[in-house]
Design a protein that fits this description.
The protein has 440 residues and is α+β, with helices and mostly antiparallel strands. 35% of the residues lie in helices and 19% in strands. The protein has 13 helices and 12 strands. The strands form 2 sheets. Strands 9-8-5-6-7-10-12-11 form an 8-stranded antiparallel sheet, with helices on both faces. The protein has a 4-stranded antiparallel sheet with strand order 1-4-2-3. Helix 2 packs across helix 3. It is globular, with a radius of gyration of 21 Å.
């Protein structure tokens, strides 16, 4: 199990009795393990883990980590002759500009044309507004709409440390692309495309023996006036015919890039007024954050599906569990420039949450002041926590989210969200300071 953190670590831990595993990799967001970026070589890492896997009697490899894990798992599976996503398919999905090229060939009606940004060209002549994103990146780093040349200049105005960090994040992928998918071109740099303003959704599914099977659709909602995800809702409210069209796009693209095995997550825009369906990007791995949503509503364990695929087993043969909710949502708690970061919950608050809402799944991401400032520049916001909840309906979910938010002292990311609304924690035993305090 490569880069087994956060939602993956929790889900795999609950499956360990039936699916014993060993873990490898490091945490990009934890010190000092993140220092390994300085010398990380993904091909060397895969070769060493293949030797280790053989020595420890492993029979499969899996990872749902976007930055390095999905590609490393594909390299190891190929080396050992295990079931896995083809390496070229992973590269084609993660090289965002090449993926656009393939999509234009097989499904142009769903493509948003894009081109590589040339830093030496006259920026003032670009047809603003544009949406900029790295050709290979993760976590939406530097992805945002830009209105003019000055905004583009500010976006790429890196200090030496930022430039070094971005280089170390992209170089492992760049080396493999040059060797294994040279027709894609360099994965370094930014791509520019026409901005699309429409609601987003995610199509989740998997390929088994070349057949593409869908699992479900998750709706995404942004913080008002931003490009930052506020919540994800399952099941989707999309009309069935729109889902059918999205599945067709997925089938065409995945077939074109040779994606014959493995879990995938595909992001789309859909404009109800114009009936336009547009692809955002293709992710050759499970969207781990959504795992508990499917389990609560459908009784499907997506992480177990990933394990079955890694062993070459048909996921359709897995047993489902009894659903516990009619709807489920993943709420994302963020801070924005001009607002202070959220305080990390105390042990007492976590215990209160577990007692009051035993089905809640809370992930927290303590951030230093420096990290928050970097997040605000690169992402436009800083993520401090994710709360997954189930409920009887949308209103019940919002009520439960607001109750937990009061408990934690966080502003709830619900339909009534407002950045300046003061929320305070519940109970005399808990800290009752306002939400706007710096994380440790």
């Amino acid at each position: 199990m490569l880069f087994n953190h956060d939602f993956d670590e929790l889900a795999h831990g609950s499956l360990r009795a039936s699916w014993p595993l060993v873990s490898a990799g490091f945490d990009l967001f934890a010190f000092p393990s993140q220092l390994r970026l300085a010398w990380f070589d993904i091909e060397r890492f895969a070769a060493l883990q293949a030797v280790r896997a053989r020595a420890q009697g492993c029979r499969a490899v899996v990872s749902h980590h976007e930055q390095f894990g999905a590609l490393a798992a594909a390299l190891i599976a190929e080396r050992l002759g295990w079931p896995g996503t083809p390496v070229r398919a992973v590269l084609a999905c993660q090289h965002k500009l090449y993926a656009r090229k393939i999509l234009q060939e097989v499904c142009p009606q769903a493509n948003v044309p894009a081109h590589r940004w040339d830093p030496s060209a006259d920026t003032a002549k670009l047809p603003f507004p544009l949406f900029a994103k790295p050709i290979k990146a993760a976590f939406s780093i530097l992805a945002r709409e830009i209105g003019d040349a000055d905004a583009l200049g500010r976006l790429v105005g890196f200090g030496w440390w930022e430039a070094l960090l971005l280089n170390r994040l992209s170089q492992p992928f760049e080396r493999v692309v040059k060797a294994r998918l040279p027709e894609a071109g360099s994965a370094s740099g930014l791509m520019l495309e026409h901005p699309v303003h429409a609601p987003q959704f995610n199509l989740d599914g998997y390929a088994y023996k070349g057949a593409v099977r869908s699992l479900g659709v998750v709706d995404a909602e942004m913080y008002p006036g931003t490009q930052a995800f506020m919540r994800f809702d399952y099941p989707s409210r999309l009309r069935p015919e729109v889902v059918v069209r999205a599945r067709d796009v997925a089938q065409r693209f995945l077939s074109a890039v040779g994606f014959t095995h493995g879990l995938f997550n595909m992001e789309f825009f859909y404009n109800e007024g114009t009936d336009e369906l547009s692809v955002i990007e293709f992710n050759p791995r499970l969207a781990s954050q959504f795992g508990s949503l499917y389990e609560q509503v459908d009784g499907l364990n997506l992480h177990e599906i990933g394990l079955a695929l890694a062993h070459g087993r048909d996921p359709a043969e897995l047993k489902t569990r009894a659903p516990t909710a009619a709807r489920a949502s993943s709420f994302v708690f963020r801070s924005f420039p001009g607002l202070d970061p959220l305080r990390t919950p105390t042990p007492a608050q976590r215990q209160w949450l577990q007692n009051a809402h035993p089905d809640a799944l809370l992930m927290t991401y303590p951030r230093t002041a420096t990290a928050v400032a970097r997040d605000h520049k690169w992402l436009g916001s800083s993520r401090h926590g994710i709360l997954n909840l189930g409920g009887a309906d949308a209103q019940d979910l919002e009520r439960r989210c607001e109750a937990v938010s009061r408990l934690l002292g966080w502003t709830p990311p619900t339909a009534r969200w407002h950045p300046a609304r003061p929320w305070r924690t519940v109970g005399a035993a808990l800290d009752t300071n306002p939400v706007v305090q710096t994380s440790p």
